[in-house]
Amino acid sequence: MHCPFCRHSDSRVIDSRTSDDGLSIRRRRQCPECGGRFSTIETASLNVIKRSGVIEPFSREKVMSGVRKACQGRPVTEGDLAVLAQTVEEAVRQTGSSQIDTNEIGLAILGPLRELDEIAYLRFASVYQAFDTLEDFESAIAQLRADHHRPASDPEE
């Protein structure tokens, strides 16, 4: 790590702390040349393989942006979207792979989005599960209804 003050090519770690979410480490460093102190944040890299074959770093903001479109007009807050994006990132990181396909990310979004808002879920699922016909929507709606009619969710139904 180059010193941001004198550009010396080395630095010494004087303190390390894990972030609240456990996904990154904050390191306090000191330059042996000028004595300047600075902080770095380290995360395990996670790359996304796009349909075009281009590889880019995973972005929670892109997850939020894609889901935000499905949530237009629904009672979903920015905070809800941020929690969903974090949940998706944690699920994707748990696969143990450093590279993941965009379609797998879309599929990882479906479960948490279904819990958040069923209409947004249907909108999003229609893209990522490639709904082609009305029957695809009817099947997804029938599954949602069946899940609502399970005794554990509402004993009176």
Describe the structure.
The chain has 157 residues and is α+β, with helices and mostly antiparallel strands. It has 2 domains: 32 residues; 101 residues. It contains 5 helices and 6 strands. The strands form 2 sheets. It has a 3-stranded antiparallel beta sheet with strand order 1-2-3, with no helix packed on it. Strands 5-4-6 form a 3-stranded mixed beta sheet. Strand 4 and strand 5 form a beta hairpin. It is elongated and about 70 Å long. The C terminus is likely disordered. Keywords: ATP-binding, DNA-binding, Metal-binding, Nucleotide-binding, Repressor, Transcription, Transcription regulation, Zinc, Zinc-finger. It holds the Pfam family ATP-cone. This is Transcriptional repressor NrdR. InterPro entries: ATP-cone_dom, NrdR-like_N, RNR_NrdR-like.
Strand content: 15-25%
Number of domains: 2
What general form does the structure show? Answer: elongated
Helix fraction by DSSP (H/I, runs of at least 4): 40-55%
Question: What is the compact description of this entry?
Answer:
The chain has helices at 60-70, 78-93, 102-116, 118-128, 134-148; strands spanning 12-18, 24-30, 37-43, 47-49, 55-57, 99-101.
List keywords for this structure.
nucleotide-binding, repressor, alpha+beta, three-stranded mixed beta sheet, 157 residues, DNA-binding, three-stranded antiparallel beta sheet, DNA binding, disordered C terminus, 2 domains, 5 helices
